[in-house]
Amino acid sequence: MRAVASATTMGNLAGALGVQAEEATIVAELKAGSEDAYAWLIAQFQQPVYSLVYRIVSDPADAADTTQDVFLKVYRGMKRFNGGSSLKTWIYRIAIHEASNRRRWWFRHKSKETSMEPAVSVDEHAVGLKDMLVDEGRSPFENLVQAEVRARVEAELKQVAEPYRTTVILRDIEELSYEEIADVMETTLGTVKSRLTRGREALKKRLERHMRELELSADEPGRKPARAVGERVGKRAEVLP
Questions:
Q1: In the listed set 110, 140, 170, which residue is the last one of a domain according to the structure?
Q2: What is the CATH number of the domain that holds 170?
């Protein structure tokens, strides 16, 4: 058993070293100004960065502009990247910083404006938290319920206070490890775990409140589907880890 465990550990270590070596090669090419390397970087990170930024700033136009700013900062700062963290966590740290700045600017200057931009949904592949809300083989009505639940989770998540919301996003949607989140947010593992617990609890309470509202509306004539939606939201709130 010890031999098996040792082999597994060595295999994991070799895999990690392989990833680090591959990333070091990519970083070297980026620092050298390789266009192919930058094309890879954008293809690899543009959608995840946009999804992360959008969940912080909430406005699709602002999210698109901020995403461009993030990659501009990455391009300009690449020569100063020293490998103290992974490339991914370094980019995410820049993204959160830029999104937070944009959000603060928005509250100061644009909060009273009405956006004419159409609503834009985030990438369906960047679901994480929403994976808990997906069932296979749904009927048309279940699909409708599913869409309402997904939209409600997104809406209620936006109401969770910072830094708890970003911590939940990074862990349950972006699926970063605790160590990566601590690196991105420049804090300790204990703080990450505390923020995650509080953020999940805040989201769960908001979903449960919405469920109760739906159940009350379901008591009205002709509103039975609303009760089904409420029950679905409640069940999903219960499985939030």
A1: 110
A2: 1.10.10.10
Query: Into how many domains does the chain fold?
Result: 2
Domain shared by 181 and 234, yes or no: yes
> Is 137 part of a structural domain of the chain?
yes
Angle between helix axes 189-218 and 140-158 (nearest 10 degrees) is 130
Q: Could you list the residue range(s) of the whole structural domain that residue 130 is in?
A: 126-241
The model's pTM: 0.67
Render pLDDT for 89-135 as a digit per residue (tens, 0 to 9): 999 999 999 999 888 766 565 555 544 444 444 443 333 454 444 44
pLDDT tens sequence across 32-81: 999 999 999 999 999 999 999 999 988 899 999 999 999 999 999 998 99
Which of 86, 110, 134 is the last residue in one of the domains? 110
